[in-house]
Design brief:
This protein is of the alpha+beta class. Helix content is about 50%, strand content about 10%. It has a five-stranded mixed beta sheet. A three-stranded antiparallel beta sheet has the order 1-7-8. Strands 5-13-10 form a three-stranded antiparallel beta sheet. The protein is globular and about 70 Å long. The protein binds protoporphyrin IX containing FE (HEM).
Length: about 450
C-alpha cells in the first residue's frame, strides 16, 4: 500500500542486475526487452531499472500495481512516456491526468455506453463479414495485415459515419499506421531528436499533420450540416459535462478522436492476430470454438445479439489477451511516498507490466500454457483479483474495453463460421517487442469449413 510518508529512513528499491554507467539497463532492454522485464520479479516487488540515466521503479506485484492505479491513484500523474506523446496527440484522455482528465472522461464515457456499443457492433459485423468473404480458400493471407485493417475500419467507422467521412477513413488507413509505428520510438528517444530532419521524423510529422487536418475538416463539415448521426464524433461534439455544463471545443474533440484511434487500433489488432495464432496451434480449442459458433451463428452472418451467446469464444479471447498483453505503462509520483516499504521520491517514475504479471507463475498456474478453460467458472487455479489487468485499472482503465470485446468476438465468430485458418507451414512466429508485443508475421491459409 502507498503511504504519503516522506519522513523516516529512506529505503531504496533493489536495482536490477546488469546496470552500466550512463547506459543504465539500455542493453538488456534493447536486446531482449520482454525477457528482461519478466526477469525483474525475481529481484523484488519493486525493482529499479535505469533507461540511460532515467530511473524507473517497476512494480512486479499485483498489490502494488493496484495501490498505484486504484487505491492511491490521486498521488500519481501520467509520467514521462505520456508527456512525450502529448505534442503528437494533444490533450486527449490518453495523455492527460488530474481534474482535466476526469472531466474529459466524464464527457467521453457515454459514447462507450452499452447501447452505443450495440450500434457499433452492427458495423463491426458488416466489416468482419467483408473481411472473411474477401478471402479465397487455399490462398495465403497475412493475419497481421487483415487484423490491422479490420481494427482500423472498426474504430474509424465508429468515429465517422456516412459518405462525407469516406476521405477521412481512407486517410486514417493511410496515416495512422505510420504514426503508430513512429510513436514508440518517439516516446523513448530524447526530445531533442524530434526536430532532426531525418526521413523517420518527416514521415511521422507529415502523417500526424494529415490526420489532424482531415479530422478538422470533418468536424467543420459536421458543424455546418443539420444531420443527426450516431457516431462518436457527433456524440463528442454535442457532449455537455453534467457537472460543469461545459462543452468541448472542436480542437479538443479532434485531440480526443486521435487519442481514441491511437489507443484503440493496434491493441485490438494485435489481440485478434494472436487469437488466430493460438487457435492454429491448438486444434482441440479450435474445434470447440467451431462447435460453439456453428450452434449459435451457423452459416449466416454474425449479429450483435450473438456475442453474448459465445462463452467459449470469450474464454479464448481472455486467455489470448492474458498471454499477449500490453508490455508497460508508466506513472509518476506527484509527492514523496513509501510503497511496500520502499521510498519513492517526488517525480520518480513507476511502471507496471500487464504482460509480466500475467506470466508470473506465482499468480497463474502453468502461465505459458494457452488454456481457455482456466477462465471457466469455478475452475481451480483460476485468476484471482487484481492479477488480470489487460485493460489496466482505476481512473485510466481502458475506456474501450467493451468495444474491444465486441469487436474481437465479432471477428472471431465471423471467421470461424466460414473458415479454419491453418498456419502456413515452415514459419516460426516470433514475438516482436512493442507497446503490445506483436507477432513477427502470421501467414495463414483459409480452409473452407462448409
Ligand atoms: C484488446 C484491446 C485493448 C487493450 C488490451 C487495451 C489496453 C488498455 C490499457 C492497459 C489502458 C490503460 C493504460 C494505463 O494504465 O495508462 C488503456 C487505456 C485506454 N484505452 Fe484501451 N485497450 C484496448 C482497446 C481499446 C479500444 C478498442 C479503444 C477505443 C476504441 C481503447 C481506448 C483507450 C483509451 C481512450 C484509453 C485511455 C483511458 C484513460 O486514460 O482514461 N482501447 N487501454
Amino acid at each position: 500500500m502507498a503511504r504519503a510518508e516522506p519522513s523516516g529512513p529512506v529505503v531504496h528499491a533493489p536495482v536490477a542486475p546488469g546496470r552500466l554507467p550512463l547506459l543504465g539497463h539500455a542493453l538488456p532492454l534493447w536486446r531482449q526487452p520482454i525477457a528482461f522485464l519478466e526477469s525483474l520479479r525475481e529481484h523484488g516487488e519493486i525493482v529499479r531499472l535505469d533507461i540511460g540515466t532515467w530511473p524507473v521503479h517497476v512494480l512486479t506485484s499485483p498489490e502494488h500495481v493496484h495501490a498505484v492505479l486504484v487505491q492511491q491513484a490521486p498521488q500519481f500523474g501520467r509520467g514521462r512516456i505520456f508527456d512525450r506523446l502529448r505534442p503528437m496527440f494533444g490533450n486527449g484522455i490518453v495523455t492527460t491526468d488530474g481534474e482535466f482528465h476526469r472531466k474529459q472522461r466524464r464527457m467521453i464515457q457515454p459514447a462507450f455506453h452499452r447501447n452505443h456499443i450495440t450500434e457499433y457492433a452492427e458495423v463491426m459485423c458488416r466489416t468482419a463479414e467483408e473481411m472473411s468473404t474477401s478471402w479465397t480458400a487455399g490462398r495465403e493471407i497475412s493475419m497481421v495485415t487483415e487484423a490491422r485493417r479490420y481494427a482500423l475500419s472498426s474504430v474509424a467507422e465508429m468515429i465517422f459515419s456516412g459518405d462525407l467521412s469516406r476521405p477521412a477513413i481512407a486517410e486514417v488507413h493511410r496515416s495512422l499506421p505510420i504514426v503508430l509505428e513512429g510513436m514508440l520510438l518517439r516516446a523513448v528517444m530524447p526530445k531533442s531528436l524530434d526536430r532532426l530532419p531525418i526521413p523517420l521524423n518527416r514521415r511521422f510529422d507529415a502523417a500526424a499533420a494529415r490526420l489532424r487536418r482531415i479530422i478538422d475538416q470533418v468536424i467543420a463539415q459536421y458543424g455546418a450540416e443539420e444531420v443527426e448521426r450516431h457516431d462518436l464524433l457527433s456524440l463528442l461534439l454535442s457532449s455537455v459535462d453534467a457537472e460543469t455544463g461545459s462543452t468541448m471545443d472542436p480542437e479538443q474533440v479532434r485531440d480526443e478522436v486521435i487519442a481514441i484511434m491511437f489507443a484503440g487500433t493496434e491493441t485490438s489488432a494485435t489481440t485478434l492476430a494472436w487469437i488466430f495464432h493460438e487457435l492454429g496451434r491448438h486444434p482441440e480449442v479450435e474445434e470447440r470454438l467451431h462447435a460453439e459458433v456453428d450452434a449459435v451463428v451457423g452459416t449466416r452472418p454474425v449479429r450483435p445479439a450473438d456475442l453474448s451467446r459465445l462463452p467459449y469464444a470469450n474464454r479464448v479471447f481472455q486467455e489470448a489477451l492474458r498471454l499477449h498483453s500490453p508490455l508497460l505503462f508508466t506513472r509518476q509520483a506527484l509527492k514523496p511516498l513509501t510503497l511496500g516499504g520502499v521510498s519513492i521520491p517526488a517525480g520518480a517514475e513507476l511502471a507496471y507490466s500487464p504482460y509480466a504479471l500475467h506470466r508470473d507463475p506465482a499468480l497463474f498456474r502453468d502461465p505459458t500454457v494457452f488454456d481457455p478453460d482456466r477462465w471457466a467458472q469455478g475452475a481451480s487455479g483460476g485468476p484471482r483479483d487484481h492479477r488480470y489487468i489487460p485493460f489496466g485499472a482505476g481512473q485510466h482503465k481502458c475506456i474501450g474495453d467493451s468495444f474491444a470485446v465486441a469487436e474481437i468476438l465479432t471477428a472471431v465468430a465471423s471467421v470461424a463460421s466460414q473458415w479454419q485458418l491453418v498456419p502456413a507451414p515452415g514459419v516460426t512466429v516470433r514475438e516482436l517487442p512493442a507497446g503490445m508485443p506483436q507477432p513477427s508475421e502470421l501467414p495463414m491459409i483459409p480452409v473452407s469449413r462448409h
